[in-house]
Please model this.
Amino acid sequence: MLFFVLRCALVLWLLLSGCAGPSGEDAKEDVLPAAQERLTELASDGGHFQVSFTSELDPITINQLHRWTLQVADKDGTPVEGATITVKGEMPEHGHGMPTQPQVTADLGGGIYQVEGMRFQMGGGWSVTFTIEADGVQDSVTFQLKL
Ligand SMILES: [Cu+2]
Model:
C-alpha cells in the first residue's frame, strides 16, 4: 500500500513537473543569460584606460578555478604594455572576497595580460577590480558580475 502511494506520488510528480517543465524552462532561459549579463569593457574610474576582459569560462561557473584575459588600452585605444596590475574580487553585499588571490601572471604583449587564479565560490553579485599602473599613471576599473 505504501509502495502504491509512493508510486502514485511519483507519477503525479512526473506529470506535474512534465506540465510545468516547458514554462519553467523558458523562465530559466530568460533568467540565466540575464544573470550572466555583464559589461566586459569599461573605462577606468579616472578615464585613463579602456579595459576589457574575457573569461576562459563562459559562462562563469561557481567554484571552478579559471583564467581571465585582460586587455588594456589608453583612452585613445593604444595598447598599454608593461603595466603593473593587481586584482581584487569581492561580494559587496556579503563583505567577503574570493577564496583565491588572483594575479596577473603574464604580459602577453599588445596590451593583453593573463590573469590566473580566478575562482568564485558562490553565486550572487561580484565586483572584480583591477588596479592598473602604467607610465606613472594609476587607475582602477571595476567589473560587476552576477553569477
Ligand atoms: Cu558571498
In short: The beta strands are 41-43, 49-55, 66-74, 84-91, 96-97, 103-109, 112-118, 125-134, 137-146.
